[in-house]
Design goal:
single chain, globular, seven-stranded mixed sheet, alpha/beta, about 10% strand
Length: about 425
């Protein structure tokens, strides 16, 4: 591990030669970009906007009072774990074993091919995408990657950062039920063999309707015929369709057909364990021998990055394995899901009351995020006192009965979605 760190430092030194006359070695280095939601929040704070401004550019599931929502069962489980006085030893390189078993079961169900699934613990959903993208880059250098957009900006940035040397295709998902999925399916059908296809397992990110089973059947048919490898985003399981199993339907359907696939899983949104950084990457293989090869190579990638935390993994494992805890967790998720539906309805009703009828697909959407249009978020925030993320992405839990009318009043009458206008990203194929 130390050797890898030293090598990275040497590469950095070679890339940043000292400028003659500079007072410091680091003087020649430019400042890095802030992440989008931090930039918007900073713009609101640094501006002279008279408060209250409404910041909807944050990545957590919040209560109505703005505090992060942590399910009560998480606190109960943490108390029980503390009573057990467990050690703080390093976990195995792949992660905490009973967490991996529980997380895998939550994603795939109780299946006979469990021994063919490589599962490793990651630092949240972004860690799963990071390891997954590095795995693709290292072992499939001739493969292509297709991003189905919209996609959570951090995951998309991770894929683009790791995969630079071969084409990244962009395929837009439809904005509402009326648009239909035909164009989307046609674009998938054009992908070459062995392309990794990023797909939302649930919560079609921000803009469009859920993908129903008929569409999944058609996607699966194309995936089989073209020998594509799905890379599923399962980071909002339990917050979308009202049932943990239903939110994992697409993953399980493809897996039951024996299709090789990857799954990025996170327990930030649904368990409130943001700072614990608890996620998993699952890769379905054809047999156990393949799985062992994939599993050990993924552990090498983990070793080069970081050792995974144990406390949050123990919390998730106990919460899934304990029937009473799991039942309480599902009840909490249902309450949150119903609240998200209610907020969307209230926003839609308020928009309609202002004569803004171009946001009807709000009611089709699921999960934490929605989009109110395409513009530069910082400029929009300063002009309208509303902070949004990329693609005009908003966190629905930032809305409440007090601020919904002012948000609806500030939104433009005509909603534009143009991905090529989205800031922070270059959309050139690399």
């Amino acid at each position: 591990v130390h050797g890898d760190i030293y090598k990275s430092m040497l590469r950095l030194i070679r890339q940043r030669p000292l400028i003659r006359g500079a007072r410091s070695f680091w003087e020649s280095m430019n400042a890095g970009k802030r992440c989008p939601y931090k930039e918007v929040a900073a713009a609101l704070l640094e501006s002279k906007i008279p408060w209250p401004a409404v910041n909807l550019a944050f990545p957590t599931c919040n209560e109505e009072d703005g505090k992060i929502h942590i399910p009560k069962v998480v606190k109960l489980v943490e108390t029980a774990i503390c009573r057990e006085k467990l050690d703080k030893e390093y976990p195995p390189m792949a992660g905490v074993p009973n967490f991996l078993s529980a997380a895998r079961n939550l994603a795939f169900g109780n299946v006979p091919y469990e021994s063919n699934i490589s599962s490793i613990q990651t630092t949240g959903g972004n860690g799963a995408y990071n390891i997954g993208a590095t795995f693709i880059k290292n072992f499939f250098p001739d493969a292509c990657v297709a991003i189905t957009r919209p996609m959570f900006w951090q995951y998309e940035d991770t894929i683009r950062r790791e995969i630079k040397h071969y084409p990244i295709h962009e395929i837009d998902l439809p904005l509402n039920q009326n648009d239909g999925f035909n164009t989307f399916l046609e674009h998938i059908a054009e992908l070459s063999e062995n392309t990794f296809l990023c797909l939302p397992a649930c919560a079609h990110m921000a803009l469009g309707p859920p993908i129903d089973m008929d569409i999944w059947e058609r996607i699966m048919k194309i995936v089989k015929e073209n020998r594509l490898i799905p890379f599923f985003d399962l980071t909002q399981q339990g917050l979308c369709m009202g049932d943990m199993n239903e939110d994992a339907t697409a993953v399980r359907k493809f897996a039951n057909e024996g299709i090789p696939l990857m799954v990025a899983q996170s327990f930030s949104y649904n368990a409130g364990l943001y700072g614990e950084r608890i996620g998993a990457l699952h890769i379905l293989c054809s047999n156990n021998q393949e799985m062992q090869s994939v599993w050990t190579q993924c552990q090498v990638l983990i070793r080069r990055n970081s050792i995974n935390p144990i406390h949050g993994a123990r919390v998730v494992a106990k919460m899934i394995e304990g029937p009473d805890y799991f039942s309480e967790w599902k009840k909490d998720l249902e309450v949150t899901r119903v609240r998200l539906l209610s907020i969307r309805k209230d926003l839609n009703d308020s928009l309609v009351s202002f004569g803004k009828n171009n946001y009807v697909n709000l009611l089709d959407q699921k999960g934490l995020f929605s989009s109110i249009g395409s513009f530069r978020p910082t400029s929009f925030a300063l002009t309208n006192k509303i902070g949004t993320m990329r693609d005009g992405l908003i966190n629905v839990t930032g809305l409440n009965p007090e601020n919904i009318p002012s948000v609806a009043r500030a939104l433009p009458s005509q909603r534009k979605i143009h991905f090529n206008e989205v800031p922070y990203l270059s959309h050139e194929t690399k």
